[in-house]
Amino acid sequence: MMKYDSDYYSEIQFINMKAEVEFREDGQWIDIFIGFEVAPNTPLSDEMKELSALLICNAAGHIVQWVVLDAGCDSEYQFTPDEKAQLTAFAEGLDLQRQFT
Asked: What stretches in the chain show pLDDT beneath 50?
């Protein structure tokens, strides 16, 4: 995780991920809310209360934005490339197109 306008940086390993998928009414966007646990011995900022992720995808299921959520609200943190890769790999296993039909 990286905090905007700060030197704070840590790499988080996500475990026990679970997803909730919402298809927006306009048909253009798919929201994937991902809850997870943080692996033991993974550094996490004391500021974070309830960490989760929102992945915003286009109608084809391609991720266009990764959002760090804290207690369900966007935060001043962003995911590192490795964290995005973990979330992307998980989301790709959801088979969004099958759910879309």
From this structure: 101
